[in-house]
Amino acid sequence: MSDDTNEEHPQGAPEGSANAEKHGLYSDNDKLYQRLEPHEKRLVVNMSQDLFERLDEQAGAYEREAIRNACVDMVKRRRANEYFAEDENFNLNAEHQHSAYSTIMKDTIKELKELGLHLQNPDNDAAEAKKDWFNQFDE
């Protein structure tokens, strides 16, 4: 059995490469943040500050990092959406792209909910209202 991690057969992208940023879904958040355009970095900072202000408690290191990552993920999804719209050959329904996109979205929502930062969404509100109505109907 050969070891493909030696110098003759390096694995992964070269150090400092932005290969994963074709559409950004597989990008490491810290590396992606360093490569964001200035207006995208401002967007992350502004969204983060808005979410910090919504916290019911003092934001500690964990909360700050979780909020920052959620905001970077939002920019990541926005970049991916732009890429998908421009690439005629790209198929979001392809299993691996759809899975990555959905996972990022679900993780972001879960993290924000755990921090008590439930973002208002008409679809979520409607679903909750229906659930409450059905529960009352069952009683």
Explain how this protein is built:
With 139 residues, the protein is mostly helical. The chain has one domain (22-138). The protein has 5 helices and no strands. The protein has helices spanning 29-35, 38-54, 61-86, 95-114, 122-138. Helix 1 packs across helix 3 (61-86).
What structural category do the secondary elements indicate?
mainly alpha
Domain tally: 1
Number of beta strands: 0
Low-confidence stretches: none
Query: What global shape is seen?
Result: globular
Helix content: 55-70%
* Beginning-to-end CA distance, first to last residue: 64 Å
> What's the tally of helices?
5
Rg, alpha carbons:
19 Å
User: What composes the largest sheet?
Assistant: none
Give a topology summary.
Layout: H1 29-35, H2 38-54, H3 61-86, H4 95-114, H5 122-138
Key terms:
globular, 139 residues, mainly alpha
Compact description:
The chain is mostly helical and 139 residues long. It has helices spanning 29-35, 38-54, 61-86, 95-114, 122-138.
